[in-house]
Structure formats: C-alpha cells, structure tokens
Amino acid sequence: MLEEFEEKTTTFTLDNGLTFVVVERHDAPVVSFHTYADVGAVDEPMGQSGLAHLFEHLAFKGTTTIGTTDIQAEMASIEREEEIFAKIERERARGPRADTARIGRLQTRLDSVEEQSKEYLSDAGYDQLLDRNGVNDLNAYTGADQTGYVYSLPSNKLELFFALESDRFMNPVFREFYTERDVVMEERRQRTESTPTGRLLEEFTATAFGAHPYGVPTIGHMSDLESLSRADARAFFEKYYGPSNLTIGIAGDVDPQRARELAEKYFSRLEGGEEPMGVATEEPEQISERRVIIREQSQPIVLMGWHRPSMFSEDAAVYDVLQDVLTQGRTSRLHKALIEEEKALQVQALPAYPGSKYPTLFGILGVPNREVGPEQLEEDIYAV
Fold first, then answer.
1. 326, exposed or middle or buried, with CB in 10 Å at 0-12, 13-18, 19+?
2. Which of left, alpha, beta for 47 (phi over 0: left; psi -120 to 50: alpha)?
3. Between 20 and 30 A from 143 (CA), which of 52, 66, 105, 192?
4. Residue 236 CB neighbours (<10 A)
5. What would the pLDDT profile of 330-378 be if each residue is shown by its tens digit?
6. Beta bridge partners of 363
C-alpha cells in the first residue's frame, strides 16, 4: 500500500522555495487543496498574541485585484482607518491618564470609516468566485505551530486554484481587518472566558509553560487583540508567509505535470525571502509539581500533563504508542480501568499539547463519573 501511494505522489520545489506535494486519486472529478504555512501562534511577537489566528479570518477576504470595485479609493479609506487607530492606541498608551471620551469619539470615527471602506467591496469577492465555481469544504485552521487553508474544487477548475491562491499571497489587503479582529475577540469571550473548559485549558497551559510561548493562548489575550493593527498583520505576513515557508498539497483528479506547469506559471512570481528563524526560548526544567484548581458550577474535569520532547526527538514515537496503549479503543488500559468500571465518563490522551515542533506536553484528560470526585479520578489514572 505504501509503495502504491509513493507511486502516485509527486513532490517538487520551485526556485523560490515553495514546495508542492501532488497525489493522484482519479476516483472522482474533484481536487482538494491544502496550503500549509509553517507558522503558528508560537511565532507571534510579544504583545501580539492572536495575530496568527487572525489570518485564518482574513484569508478569503480578497486582494488588490479580487473583491474590490475601486482599489485606489478603498486603499485611501483603509489608510484613514490606520491613522485613526494609531490615535486610539496612542491615547490608550497613556494608561490611567487616557481620555476615555476621546477614545470613544475616535472609535466612532473608525467605525464610520470602516463602513465607507466596505462600500468598495465587490460582489465578485474571493468567496463568491469560489462558490460560483463549485467550492467545497472551504476552511482554515490555526495551531501553536502551523496555519492551514483548505478547500476542494471540480477538477476542471484546477487553474482557478492556482490563480486565486497565488494572488492571495502576492496582493494581500487584509480587508475588513478591524471587523474581523472584533469577531476574534467575541470568539475568545464565547470559547474561553465563558466556558469552564476554556478557562481551564488556558490556565493549565500557562502554568505548564512559564517561559516558552506555548504558554500563550492561540486565540490571544484580550488586551493584545485590542491593540492589533493592520500594520502588525502586514509585518507578520511579510516575515512568515514567504514561499519557502509554504507547502501546498494537492490531491485528487490531477495530472502532476499539469500541476507543475501551473505552479511555475502562477507561484514562481512570488519573491523568495529568508527562511524565518524558529523560537529560541527554551522552557526551563520544571523542579516541582504545578497545580491549577478552578472552582466552577460545572462538570468536574481532570487534566494532567507531563513534559515531553518535540516531534524531532528520537523518542517522539514513544508517546504515540503510549496514546494507543492508554486510550485507543475499548481494550486500552484507561478505557478498561475507568470507563468500564464507571469511574469516568470520558478519558482521552493528548499526545502533543499544545504543539509538537518544540518540547511540549503529553496530557490526559478525564471527566469523572457523578459518584467519583476529581481527586479520586486523578489517583485512579496514576494507578493505571
């Protein structure tokens, strides 16, 4: 099976460093695309948490050539947005001495100019073009280590993908930036601040990583999100979204030679840049147990973690095996000891949390049964 897969897989790299992996599967006239950016929340500058995830929201907002009726007028309006936001940030930086009334007036002006910018949006935007051409499964995701963009098209629309995706990286606008930033802030309120599980995960991760940026939430801190600007986004994009930091996977009813030709035609236009450096900060060795207790009127949860090496370690495979032994299937040890014995309602392993490029955590999450307290469940997990 592996040999057959390898025979159907073609890998090539353009002169600018962008790598393509093409897998032929002619079962249906459909092609799926996955653009993988080797950048995640761990790469964000201090004070700009949430920026990597924000790109997930900005991904399909169009470019200087797609999604606008008048790019010059739109860019002029966007520049006014940036000027107003800079004034808001300068006033906020005064701390307790800030003029809150002035901030309110500036925010009202910013909202008004944002609405003016939206007047230049075209009904032939990125999303609309894809919809009209049969897109399926359009999505994006962000993790601590990576960001990805995925969708599928009919196989006769192969060139459309190359045209649109290359333009997305050549001519970004970061359209509706502050609107989407506010969406992310609301997402944080709903998924983290308003849920016991969200708060537990955030506190647990911050406690486990005191130095390494794995301890910073992917969704971002609220104060950081409030301060993010379009200029921050552009600097981050220029640093981390160069072709050498991208890999594009294509699978389905596709001819590898045709894919190579289209890649050269469209993506060779992207200018190569320096490959960004990874995170230099190392988490100091932990010398004692760290414990977080959050008291909520909710179902108890037990979350335990142990430091482990990165995926590049020769010992990394051990943790995948450990996950299988402990939690995969009805014959796994934790399932038999906790689920079958009615001590837990749920138990799962987190083999690499919150990422895997750097030394990380192996975690176990358990939800105790009604008659079992979290302290007892912790003891039962250790007993296994």
1. buried
2. left
3. 66
4. 20
5. 999 999 999 999 999 999 999 999 999 999 999 999 999 999 999 999 9
6. 305, 350
Nearest of 130, 114, 199 to residue 164 by alpha carbon:
130
Structure tokens at 9: 């897989």
Cα-based distances in Å from 183 to 118, 178, 187, 196, 361: 16, 9, 6, 21, 30
At 145-162, the pLDDT tens digits run 999 999 999 999 999 999
How far apart, in whole angstroms, are the C-alpha atoms of residue 82 and residue 93?
A: 16
Q: For 310-330, what is each residue's pLDDT tens digit?
A: 999 999 999 999 999 999 999
Confidence (pTM): 0.92
pLDDT of residue 6: 79
Q: How do residues 24-35 score in pLDDT, each as one tens digit?
A: 999 999 999 999
Amino acid present at 191: R
